[in-house]
Amino acid sequence: MSAFWDFPADAFEAGTTFWLEVTDANLSEPRGVNNEFAALTPREGHSCLWVQRLQSGEGGNHLDLHADDVAAEAARAESLGAGVVRKGEGLIALRSPGGFPFCIVAYDGETAIPAPVTWPGGQRSIADQICIDIPAQVYGSERDFWVAFSGRRPRPSDSPEFERLERPPGMPLEILLQRRDEAEFDDPVSAHIDLATSDLEAETLRHSELGAVPIERFEHWQVLHDPTGLEYCITDRAPRPVA
After folding, report:
1. Full DSSP string of 99-116
2. How many helices (H) and strands (E) does the chain have?
3. Which CATH number do you get for residue 45?
4. Which of 106, 125, 153 is the last residue of a domain?
5. Strand (E) positions, the chain?
6. Does the predicted model carry a pTM greater than 0.85?
7. Is the dihedral of CA 196, 14, 214, 225 positive or negative?
8. How far apart are the first and last CA of the chain?
């Protein structure tokens, strides 16, 4: 699995610089037909976070799922209600039944999960979760799609609007499903990235000093906007890789 930040061209540099600093990563050589993709390369482990420069459209986040048979997995996604958007070399772009963009890409032997980073303030953190934000009116069908397609068992949360999909050993990213009761009727399914940290206050301060804007504080997480305006959260989940 890989999670992407998708930036409009005029926001790509600012967004990429911010997330490199947040994750203590290096930027890979660009890839893609238009050099639009690059990986955030961690100091330990294989890359599971990427940035993309959009040629058009608004920014957001999307998910890549790595498979040894791209065509077969795309066909399975279609059988569960997804729709193919385009086909490229080594990848097939799709949308979930609720309109969330994701890709099936060729598996390249990635096995090593990135490690959390320890910061000068003493706290540890890691970007390790994609939260799929689902309008309430399509929550049931979208949830059923991701449970079936991912093969991950759902686990209820203490908060009724959240449901977590079980993270198998060896996977770098959690999948959290959020029911958005306040969403408009025609809002599509979207997503945002979450970080886990050992000190929510210290990590929020660090992000603010890097240019993030705190938006709203909850008991166990802080909502922020990155310098390009993309929403994300810092949570007080334990920052640990799963072996």
Report:
1. --EEEEEE-----PPPPP
2. 4, 17
3. 3.10.180.10
4. 106
5. 2-8, 26-27, 37-41, 49-54, 60-67, 83-88, 91-95, 101-106, 117-118, 124-135, 154-156, 162-165, 174-180, 190-197, 213-217, 221-225, 231-235
6. yes
7. negative
8. 15
**Spatial distance between the Cα atoms of 145 and 150, rounded to a whole number of angstroms:** 8
Q: How many domains does the chain have?
A: 2
Residues 140-181: pLDDT tens digits? Answer: 999 999 999 999 999 988 889 999 999 998 899 999 999 999
Whether residue 243 is contained in a domain is answered as no
Residue 201, phi-psi category: left (phi > 0), alpha (psi -120 to 50), beta (remainder) = alpha
Buried b (16+ CB within 10 A) or exposed e, 105-114: beeeeeeebb
Question: Would you say residue 112 lies in a domain?
Answer: no
Q: Which of 201, 226, 18, 218 has its CA nearest to residue 123? A: 201
Angle at 236 between CA 231 and CA 238, to 5 degrees: 120
